[in-house]
Every structure is written in structure tokens, then in C-alpha cells.
Amino acid sequence: MTEPNYHPFSLAQQQVLSYSPKAASLSSVACSIFMIQKILRDPSRKEKVYHRIMLTLSFHTAIFASIMFLGTWPMPKDSLTASYGAMGTDRTCTAQGFILAFESLTV
Question: Which of 4, 17, 28, 51 has the fewest CB atoms within 10 Å of its CB?
Fold first, then answer.
């Protein structure tokens, strides 16, 4: 007896959907880190409210993008509806979901 297919996408489509957000996440992390270091290295920028807000926003964007980079990796690998690249557990999936929910409120 064959197992039912729970995915409406082919394997190639699942791979594209799994890997495509990683490029955007990496560029977002890189830009956020650049902005953080740019603000922290210039003492005059640390005094301005605008730059403090941008520093906080960049910090939370870097965290959010880092978690988005993980994508499907923290998802449980042994569930029936596991996505391509899933290699986590229920706890890693819950942790990723919590951090994403918290960071989406801060960004």
C-alpha cells in the first residue's frame, strides 16, 4: 500500500520553495549587520534618536531574517506533512514559531 501524497507540489517545486527565502534572508542579515556597525562605530550617530531607532530596528531585523533563513530546517522530519528539508523536532519548530511571532511584532 502506498502512502498518500500530502504535498501539492513536485519535489523540484518544494526545493525551490525551501531554498529561495534563504537568499533574501542572507542579504537582509548582511544589510542589518552593516547598518548596526555603521551606527555603533560613529559616536555622533549614537546620540541621535533616529539612529537609535534604526539600530534597534536593524537588530530585530537581523534576528528575524536569521530565523527566516532556517526556513524548513526546524520543522519536524517525522510528521506526515513534513516539508522538504525538514530535520527538526516539535521543540525546534515551536521555538522558531515563537521567535518569528515575537520578532514580527517588534519589526
Answer: 4
Predicted confidence (pLDDT) per residue in 38-51, tens digit: 999 999 999 999 99
Q: Is the pLDDT of residue 1 over 50?
A: no
Model confidence, pTM: 0.81
Residues 69 and 24: beta-carbon distance below 8 Å: no
**Which amino acid appears at position 35 of this protein?**
M
CB 99 within 8 A of CB 67: yes
Q: 65 with 32: CB under 8 angstroms? A: yes
**What distance in Å separates the CA atoms of residue 9 and residue 72, rounded to the nearest whole number?**
15
End-to-end CA distance of the chain: 48
